[in-house]
Amino acid sequence: MIYLDYAATTPVDDSVLEAMKPYFCEIFANPSSKHKCGRSAEKAVAESRETLASAIGASSPSEIILTSGASESTNLAIKGYAELFDEPRHFITTSFEHKAALQAFENLGEWGHRISLVSPGRSGVVDPAEFEALIEPDTALVSCMLVNNEVGTIQPIDDIADMCKSRGIAFHCDATQAFGKMPVSCGSNIDFISISAHKFYGPKGIGALYARNGSEIKCQISGGSQENGHRSGTLNVPGIVGMAKAAEIGIERMGSEWDRLSRLSDIFLDRIKSGIPMHYIQGDLAKKVPWINNICFAGVDSGKARDELGAREICVSRTSACSKSGGKSHVLDAMGTIEEFSEGALRFSFGSRTTEMKVMTAAAEIKHVITELRSR
After folding, report:
1. Could you read off the pLDDT of 238-253 as tens digits, one per residue?
2. Residues acting as catalytic residues
3. pLDDT, tens digit, for every residue of 26-48?
4. Residue 141 forms beta bridges with which residues?
5. Considering the entire predicted model, what is its pTM?
6. Which fold has domain 2-8+253-375?
């Protein structure tokens, strides 16, 4: 099996699994319990929170709110911040955010707030000036992802965050596809950052929201008032430990892995370019991460291509794994991709187990599949 869908999820690293094991059956107590067993679990959570805070440049571990994943983190930031206002306010995001963000903003619209969208254009990179042009006197929050999950383009979040800070506007960044694989820092101007462990070789079902000290948000899950009242629910200790360990490993390997995946991406794209006519690589290649490549093949149904590749033991995706099955890519629509190409779009994403032999084999099989489908 050749797995080329790391943007959807990653395998748990062996070291991460080993770090998690004791917290299933040995140190298994509820970290909110005040007895000795509970304190042992709470200590592991505290140490993991410190690791995550350090990884993201937070000033205090208390700025890390532990969640079930980036979807919850994003909803907590957007909805939790919007609920601070008694009157409708204005919010800005992009038209090609992850569905978790876009649907959260749709909910805000249903609550009476006004939403403005910035489109990325064919490059897949937004222009900070377009955000600035949309700002109104009552703009409350701006949200923009760091790395797009379908095409891999890197967004100028520092410029957008600086602009927001100078105007007293809160800024949220979805760093799901970036954290653990490239530098991610809250800096001095980012108020909220969403991350998810299973995107950087940690377990599924655990994530975090960085929320700058002094940034208020309303709790979205009521209950026991864990996480300083920001998020109720018994903490997933094994998952938290695993996420922190995965972050440690990711930071250690970041530079070498970027270089390795860049080389593999070059090999892969060279094979596609030389072997398959009428294709289009989405996004500005000079402004994207090397582990995500979205390629559109004219005259091909991407669903059939994905299934044919699957029959050949090659796993790829059409769009985000979180998108509606069979639905069109809202990302490619936002970028203005013509229908002839968007219908044949496939996402190829690389990771820790991707090798040169695998990408060369995959490229050859892709050529066979595309040629065969076109001949039909």
Report:
1. 999 999 999 999 999 9
2. 322
3. 999 999 999 999 999 999 999 99
4. 91, 170
5. 0.96
6. Aspartate Aminotransferase, domain 1 (3.90.1150)
